[in-house]
Design a protein that fits this description.
The chain is an alpha/beta fold and 360 residues long. It has 14 helices and twelve strands. It has three domains: 68 residues, no CATH class; 180 residues, Rossmann fold (3-Layer(aba) Sandwich), CATH 3.40.50.450; 71 residues, Arc Repressor Mutant, subunit A. It has a nine-stranded mixed β-sheet with strand order 1-2-6-5-4-3-7-8-9, with helices on both faces. A three-stranded antiparallel β-sheet has the order 10-12-11. Helix 9 packs across helix 10.
Length: 360
């Protein structure tokens, strides 16, 4: 409980602190020490550290009462993909199923005032990807975001909504029933503590989480100043793939997405294009079974470059595993998830993994 209070306290500091906090946490500094340093550094603009901790404790109590789960950065249930970004949230507040946050995911984002064409494309792509076992991540906004969520749900798939408000403050309010449907099988998440009202400054910040949870970001119908382009920039900074759907050149509604295509984003005409970019078999049947892997008839793991990088009882972070295996984190994470499901690897918290069983 003490560490959770410290992580929530860190989340209440200014966003500029989070990148520095992540650097110190990755090197093994305790969250309480990190909070004290940052609180001292911003003493002229911050409340007393004791008051911040009091706010954190109160937020945790309110979350517990509302069945909202707080996932600190150190927890094994914290999404490993998020630990790879420069400024991961110190804590994620979650409604629904925590496991959905660690599955292979694709983000679909786009215009709030979307055309019927964009809505239809978003719904179809999300549904097709969901039927192939991919989790769909978006922001619960009007337009493309909500169409993507609905498409995944209609296909019987899983979707994750990342909010620019507390998870108990649904915005826009007319999407309350959609949020309830999402957390029945997936998750509604935010880095903002429960009770936080939506504010324009929160939405650009949450976009880094949408891309951070995902292996790729697909942009559908984005204007030149669309917030979706912020998500695309975050994805590029995080080493994620960026793809875009072409649109009507006469309307001017898709100039932002077309600019991404000119800059090298892969063109998307179907879900197969996305799966191909991710190095997955496009024609694979729908399945949520990720247990397939290189295991011989005795149950022992065959030679595996990722598994060979790990030692029993010695946790390694993604940067270390990436350096040893030669795989970048967006390609490395899916393999680690497979090994985890096979019982060969487990998470050790803070984005670290450790091998189970025999030595290399």
């Amino acid at each position: 409980m003490t560490d959770l209070v410290e992580f929530v306290s860190l989340s209440l500091l200014s966003p500029w602190c989070w990148r520095v906090a992540a650097e110190w946490l990755r090197r093994g500094d305790a969250p309480g020490i990190v909070f004290q340093r940052l609180a001292r550094a911003r003493r002229q603009e911050a409340d007393d550290a004791g008051d911040v901790r009091s706010q954190a404790s109160d937020a945790i109590r309110r979350a517990d009462a509302a069945s909202i789960v707080a996932i600190p950065w150190s927890a094994t249930s914290y999404p490993p993909a998020l630990t790879t970004i420069a400024d991961p949230p110190p804590v994620l507040w979650t409604r629904g199923h925590v496991d959905a946050l660690s599955a292979a995911a694709v983000a679909i984002v786009g215009s709030r005032g979307a055309s019927p064409y964009a809505l239809a494309v978003a719904e179809q792509l999300a549904g097709d990807l969901a039927m192939r076992g991919m989790v769909i991540v978006s922001g619960l906004a009007r337009g493309v975001d909500s169409a993507a969520h609905r498409g995944a749900l209609a296909a019987g798939g899983i979707t994750v909504a990342v909010l620019g408000s507390g998870v108990d403050v649904i915005y826009p309010p007319e999407h309350a029933s959609l949020a309830a449907a999402i957390d029945a099988t997936g998750a509604v998440v935010s880095e903002l503590m429960p009770g936080t009202r939506p504010h324009p400054r929160f939405f650009p910040l949450r976009n880094r989480i949408i891309s951070g949870l995902s292996r790729a970001v697909v942009v559908i119908e984005a204007g030149e100043k669309s917030g979706s382009l912020i998500t695309a920039r975050c994805a590029l900074d995080q080493g994620r793939d960026v793809l875009a759907v072409p649109g009507n050149i006469l309307s001017g509604r898709n100039r932002g997405a077309h600019a991404l295509l000119r800059d090298g984003a892969k063109i998307v005409e179907s879900a197969d294009d996305i799966l191909e970019e991710l190095g997955m078999v496009a024609s694979a049947p729908a399945s949520h079974d990720r247990t397939a892997g290189r295991v011989d008839g005795t149950g022992a793991a065959a030679a595996d470059p990722v598994l060979d990088c790990l030692e029993p009882g010695e946790p390694s972070n993604l940067d270390e595993i990436s350096e040893r295996s030669g795989l970048q984190p967006p390609r490395l994470l899916p393999r680690l998830f497979e090994l985890e499901l096979q019982g060969l690897v487990r998470r050790a918290g803070g984005g670290r993994f450790v091998r189970i069983g025999r030595t290399c």
